[in-house]
Amino acid sequence: MQNYKTVWANCLKIIKDNLGPENEQVFKTWFEPIVPVQLEGNVLTIRVPSQFFYEWLEEHFLDLLKRTIRLQLGPNGMLKYSILMDTSIAETPIVTNLPSSSRQATVNRPKDVPLIIHGENEHEIANPFVIPGLQKLKINSQLNGNYTLENFVEGDCNRLARSAGYAVAENPGRTSFNPLLLHGGVGLGKTHLAHAIGIKTREKHPDKTVLYVTSEQFLQQYVEAVKNKNTNDFIHFYEMIDFLILDDIQFWATKGIHTQEAFFHIFNYLHQKNRQIIITSDKAPSDLGTLEPRLLSRLKWGLAADLGTPDVETRLAILKQKLANDGIEMPEDVIEYIAYNINTNVRELEGALISLIAQSSLNHRQITIDLAKQMIDKFVKSTTREITIDYIQKVVCDYFKLPLESIQSTTRKREIVQARQLTMYFAKKLTKSSLAMIGLQCGNKDHATVLHACKTVSNLNETDKQFHYWVDELEKKLKD
Fold first, then answer.
1. CB count in 10 Å sphere of residue 125
2. Does residue 131 register a pLDDT over 50?
3. 207-220 b/e with 16+ CB inside 10 Å = b?
4. What value does the mean pLDDT of the chain take?
5. Which of 11, 138, 163, 348 has the most other CB atoms within 10 Å of its CB?
C-alpha cells in the first residue's frame, strides 16, 4: 500500500523534471506550497493555499498533473484538491467541469473545499480522421474559450491583425485575407487571436466546421496515418473542414517534408472551395525560406499581419483588463510600474502580474510599489530565452559548422552522429519535450535511440576532455 506522502514526493520529482531547471522558480511558487493530505484507493488529495492558487494550477498545469498522477496511480488515478479557507470540510465535492458561476458560488462558503480532476473519463482529442465516412462531422474544434476577441486588447502593435481577423470571422473564405498569416515573436498573442477568430466564426456561422490544430499535432497525426496506411482518411478529414487554423508553422522549417506536401494539397483544396485558412508563425514569410517553396508561395497569397511588441499604453490596458477579469484591485502606481518595466511581450507581462499576486497571496503581504520592485527585479533577471529543439539544432550545427538538415539525415558520419546525439542530450535536459518528440525532430528516431544518445553523451562528457569541452561550450551558448 503506497503512502500518500511518498506518492506526492514521486509526483513532485516528475513535475520538476518536466518543468526543467529553467523553471525552478515556477516549481517553487506553484508546487512546493502544496501539501498532500490523504490517499484513498486511486484518489490522492492535496491541499492548496487558495482558490486563486487552484485556478492557476488548473489553467496552466492541468495536463502535467493528469499525466503525473496517472503515472503514479494508474490510468484511473484521480487528484482531489482541498482549498484551505477554514477548518471544516464541505460535504459535496466540486467537479472541475462545472460552470464557473456554479463553482464560485460554492467555493465562497468558508470551508476547506475538495475539488476533483477526473482521469480517463475526460474527453481527449485523438487522431480525428479515423472517424469513418465523409458526412458532415461534429468535431471538437479544440478552441480555447478563454481566448476571445473581446478580451484581446487592441493597440497599434496588432490593429491590422485584429481587424483582419474580425473581417474573416464575419465572412470566412470570402475575403482577400485567405490565407490569413499571423506572425510575430514569442508571447505576442498570435495563438490568442487565432483562437478568438475561430470562436467568433462559430458564433456567427454555427454551421461552419472550425478546427484548431498545432503544426506539431498535424505532423504527429500524419506520421500515425502513414504508419497505419490510412493517409487517404487523413486527407479526406481535413478536406471537410470549413475553417482551418494551423498554429506555429515554423515548426516544419527543418522537418516534415512529406507532411508539408500533404498540407500543400489540403491547402489547395480548401482554398479552391473558399474555405478559410489561418496560419500562425513566429517568423515573417520572408524568413520561412526553409519551408517547401510551393507551400511558402501559398502563404503569400493572402494577408500577412504582424503582431508587434505592445507599447506602454497597450501594456497598461492589458494589465487592467486582466485584473478586471479576475476581479482583483491593484494600486495604479503598481500597475504602471509593471507596464513600464516589463516591455518584452504579453506573456511575460501577464506572468509578472501573476507572480506579484501570488507573492502577495502566499506571503500575506499587501501589494505595494516596494513589493512590485522586489518581484520585478527578480523576474527580469530570471527571464531567459525560451529554448526549443529547433533552437538547439541551430546552435549545435552552427558550432560544428554543419548544415542544419544534417541532423535530419540518415548519414552515419561520425561528426553528424555526434551533433545529433548532442542535440538529443540538450533537448532532454533543457526542454519539456517528450523523448518521442525529440526523436521525431532529430531524424525520426525512436525514444530508445534518444535515451542511448543521452547516455553516450553523459559518458563521453566524463571521460573525454574534448567532448567535455564541447558540452561545456554548447551549454554556455544555449543559456546565453
1. 11
2. no
3. ebbbbbbbbbbbbb
4. 79
5. 11
Closest CA to 176 of 264, 303, 279: 303
Which DSSP string corresponds to 32-48?
Answer: TT-EEEEEETTEEEEEE
User: Which residue from 8, 21, 165, 120 is spatially nearest to 72, judged by alpha carbons?
Assistant: 8
Residue 276 backbone phi and psi in degrees, to 5: -85, 140
Residue 22 pLDDT level (bands cut at 50, 70, 90):
confident
Angle ∠(429,431,437) on CA atoms, nearest 5? 105
pLDDT tens digits, residue range 455-476?
999 999 888 888 999 999 998 8
Q: What is the CA radius of gyration of the chain?
A: 24
Beta bridge partners of residue 114, listed in sequence order: 82
Strand 210-214: give its sheet, edge to edge: 210-214, 243-247, 276-281, 180-183, 303-306
Q: Is the peptide bond before 179 cis (omega within 30 degrees of 0)?
A: yes
Cell of 304: 500577412
The grid coordinates of residue 363 equal 506571503
Q: CA-CA distance, 159 to 310, in Å (whole number)?
A: 11
- φ/ψ of 467, rounded to 5, equals -65, -40
- At 327, list the grid cell: 476581479
127 SS3 class = coil
Residue 386 pLDDT: 60
Residues facing 226 on adjacent strands: none
Domains of the chain: residue spans and CATH = 4-117 (3.30.300.180), 138-306 (3.40.50.300), 312-382 (1.10.8.60), 389-479 (1.10.1750.10)
Question: DSSP string spanning 423-460?
Answer: HHHHHHHHS---HHHHHHHTTS--HHHHHHHHHHHHHH
Number of C-beta neighbours around residue 372 at 10 A: 25
| Cell reading at 186 | 514569442
**Looking at the DSSP assignment, which residues form a beta bridge with residue 280?**
182
Report the Cα–Cα distance between both ends of the chain, in Å, rounded.
Answer: 47
User: What's the per-residue H, E or C state across 376-419?
Assistant: HHHHHHHCCCCCCHHHHHHHHHHHHCCCHHHHHCCCCCHHHHHH
